[in-house]
Design brief:
By secondary structure, the protein is an alpha+beta fold. 45% of the residues lie in helices and 16% in strands.
């Protein structure tokens, strides 16, 4: 039974909605801007994509884009051209697999209904230009957009199955904050070397059998999983890897090596592949490896034992039988890892934010139609990031001043920005680096998000709901 308070609240809000002026939406672009945008959208001679790194926008000729795409797809060790659309055949294969999981009791009715996609979309191939590698002729990072594809929900399911094993591996690194916290306790001695290594094209080089072998190794260590559950997960991984097809320029292709960047379970799969390899050598080099962590394909470690011994170690890693190729850099003073510059000062490891040469000011404009409180939180979030990243307050001052200028260029009030910068400057860095504890909510109903699409009347609707909210609060239920 609906209470009188709920009924009254509904009537009051609906009454306000009826009174609101439904004016014709005012275009936020000028006539010339709208015309230019339309012409760009209709121009088949150019392709516009976000940069792989740096937040910039890259405009390429269609000829260059298509030629680079065909160069990538021309790698016969990774891709194979298909003569026809395999969608229907693959759909039956996936559905048979899911039905079998349901018969075995591994999937319940709701899971089967969710994972089965009756009208799947065809995955689309595209690439992001790596302007940080070459500004004039950027190579592409291949991406397969598989949203709504036959394997998309199964990939999501498998990712949830694999994630718990990823986070418990010895070398797992969650994020920059965790990296900073660990480095604060790292043992540094004179002569130690900072080393970073990057795995070249990790997602596409993973041999299917070695990747599945790695997943099996970690799954079988879990005594809580039944053999048929392990088998179901491994078959699902195999199914996605062997049926990773996509479309580009009216043609269909199949990826025959590695996993697609873009599918949900790819990072977990790649993490387990790398962790399985690392398990084979880490214990043998524990004397030299003072510290070793990896964020998917980016590795950082502190080496003790001299440069010649380090070269021997890197040569040893290069002789692996998994196709892993590392690009390594080392220094006794500073290296770049993720978004950090890690450096040694007074025999102490310190950090500050690293900015790439291709970084652009891609912060959201203050005149955006997002809620004001959301927009105002964006600069503070970035100032907090700077505060966490910078060991020295002098580095924070330099970087936060530049950040303030970037936001001012986007229309944010310079005085409000400075007040926020000073507020964050006075905060204790150690407190900001602590893991936040989730506050238990006594009544989940007190924290229900209200999510809806943008509408010019959103502010008025919000005011109406807030105005009449006390009526609901009187509801005894």
């Amino acid at each position: 039974m609906i209470s009188s308070e709920i009924t009254t609240f509904e009537q009051m809000v609906l009454s306000d909605l009826e009174k609101m002026e439904h004016k014709k939406n005012r275009d936020n672009l000028t006539h010339q801007e709208r015309k230019a945008l339309r012409e760009l959208m209709q121009d088949d001679d150019i392709v516009i994509k976000p940069a792989d790194k740096g937040g910039g926008i890259v405009i390429m000729t269609a000829d260059y884009y298509n030629n680079e795409a065909m160069r990538i797809l021309g790698d016969a060790t990774t891709y194979r051209h298909l003569k026809k659309d395999p969608s229907m055949d693959f759909k039956h294969i996936f559905h048979d697999y899911l039905d079998q999981g349901h018969l075995l009791g591994i999937l319940n009715n709701n899971e089967l209904k969710y994972l089965k996609i009756d009208h799947p979309k065809i995955p689309i191939f595209y690439f992001l230009p790596k302007i940080h590698k070459n500004l004039e002729n950027p190579p592409g990072r291949p991406i397969i957009s598989g949203i709504g594809s036959i394997s998309s929900r199964l990939s999501e399911y498998l990712d949830k199955q694999l994630q718990p094993y990823v986070t418990t591996t010895e070398t797992y690194l969650k994020d920059t904050i965790e990296m900073i916290n660990i480095l604060m306790d790292a043992d540094w001695k004179d002569g130690d070397i900072l080393v970073t290594s990057d795995v070249q094209s990790l997602y596409t080089i993973i041999p299917h059998n070695r990747g599945i072998e790695a997943a099996q190794f970690f799954l079988e260590k879990d005594n809580k999983l039944l053999p048929e559950q392990v088998d179901f997960i491994l078959k699902g991984i195999h199914l996605i890897l062997e049926h990773n097809y996509f479309w580009f320029l009216e043609e269909f292709y199949l990826q025959i090596s590695g996993t697609a960047m873009g599918t949900r379970f790819a990072p977990s799969f790649a993490n387990l592949f790398m962790a399985h390899w690392e398990n084979s050598f880490l214990s043998n080099w524990s004397t030299n490896l003072v510290f070793y962590r990896r964020y998917i394909d980016d590795i950082f470690f502190i080496w003790r034992g001299g440069e010649e011994a380090l070269k021997l170690f890197l040569d040893f890693l290069a002789t692996n039988d998994r196709g892993i190729i590392l690009t390594s850099n080392w220094s006794k003073t500073e290296v770049i890892f993720l978004d950090l510059k890690i450096f040694v000062e007074n025999d102490t490891i310190k950090t500050k934010t690293h900015f790439k040469d291709v970084d652009c000011n891609s912060f959201i404009e203050r005149r955006s139609c997002h809620l004001p409180q959301w927009l105002n939180a964006v600069p503070k979030g970035q100032f907090l990031r700077m505060k966490r990243n910078c060991t020295n307050i002098s580095d924070f001052d330099t970087q936060s001043t530049k950040l303030r200028s970037d936001f001012a260029d986007k229309g944010y009030n310079i005085h409000t920005l400075e007040d926020t910068r000073v507020e964050v400057r006075q905060m204790e860095r150690l407190d900001l680096l602590k893991k936040k504890k989730k506050n238990p909510i006594l009544n989940p109903m007190e924290s229900i998000p209200f999510i809806f699409s943008y509408n010019p009347l959103n502010k008025a609707i919000r005011r109406s709901i807030k105005k009449h909210w006390p009526i609901l609060q009187k509801d005894p239920i």
